[in-house]
Amino acid sequence: MTQTVPASTAPARAPRQPARIHRAWFVAAVAFVTIIGAAGFASLPGLLIEPLHAEFDWSRGTIGLAVSVNLALYGLTAPFAAALMDRFGIRRVVAVALLVIACGALATVWMTAPWQLVLCWGVLVGLGSGSMALAFAATVTNRWFTARRGLVTGVLTAAGASGQLVFLPLLAWLVDHHGWRPATVTVSLAALAVAPFAWLLMRDHPADVGLAPYGGTYEPKPAPTPGATRRALKVLLDAARTGPFWLLAGTFAICGASTNGLVRTHFVPAAHDHGMPVTAAAGLLAVVGVFDVIGTVASGWFTDRFDSRRLLAVYYALRGISLLFLPILLAPSVRPPLVFFIVFYGLDWVATVPPTIALCREHYGDDGAIVFGWVLASHQLGAAAVAFLGGLARDLTGSYDGVWYASGALCAIAALLAMTIHRRRH
Q1: Per the UniProt record, which residue ranges are transmembrane (predicted)?
Q2: Structural domain total, the chain
Q3: What is the rounded radius of gyration, in angstroms, for the C-alpha atoms of the chain?
């Protein structure tokens, strides 16, 4: 007589042969769409500076402070989010983060004082977006892929740029024709729309569906790791004793300063200072998003094949050179040299991410995603500093030129730092 094994003692789900298209690619696709849907909030700060200044008479430094709080919390939340994903699962963390983003963005519609902008856009959206940071892409890649990690990292990183491409022209049109409030509501609704999509279709681990990671061997799903905060801090303390961590953090801080803090936040108002319409300037940033996708995916492909340190050095050097030319390229109309800058800068925008994640993985193994979360924190702290200082410099000097030159010099320093990272011997 056949005995029935009680459910409580039934064996774990056995691995099965993957379908022709591995489930990991569907999970990556869901993550891609989720990041796109959440990317609207990243497109908006640069469009809000002039309307908020005009309506409330707030200085650009004050508005930049709210953006800097957002960027700083985005970075500081990322390593804890990676640990929380280990503890509670990717789906739960991402769904809650999207809801927080939606609530924070929607609440700004009723604000009347600068502290409310800092609270809603800075704190709430910053915390939510930090949980949807690049550590999310790193976690998905590390769990679901053994082969093609560089390529997948590039694709998921490019999702943020794709979101910028989708939302920025629409948001610029809304701000220009209907004011900033409808644009903010659009961002909130986009985050709300994506939340159930991520909850229903995302899976936390290949073992949940009885599969091995793409290109790897089957392993049972590890038990949830308690003490997410303690683990994140322990990983930081361990990594902080090593030289590569500080070199990666320093280079990535300059990366954030020269992209999210400077160009994403201040390019539109800087171009407007030269007489360019807001919609035209926003359209140029959308073009950055187009070529960012190409550049980041290509960078992921390069990362699978070339030395990540040399890739970083080349990326930062080229970025610095391009920034030195920007002040003489801005004009009332869009001219070919400025278009060339936009294409060039777009290719380089977050091309630094795949080699940086690869170096974190190379030096820190299974803790690589959390270490990258801390490195990303430095990225956002650099972005936060320049988001505030750029607005302050504009208030004090009436021009952004000095900020462009200083950022170009910082990129040259980042290129030198990247080449000093040693290779780990296996």
Answers
A1: 24-49, 61-81, 93-113, 119-139, 151-174, 180-201, 245-263, 283-302, 314-332, 338-359, 371-390, 402-421
A2: 1
A3: 22
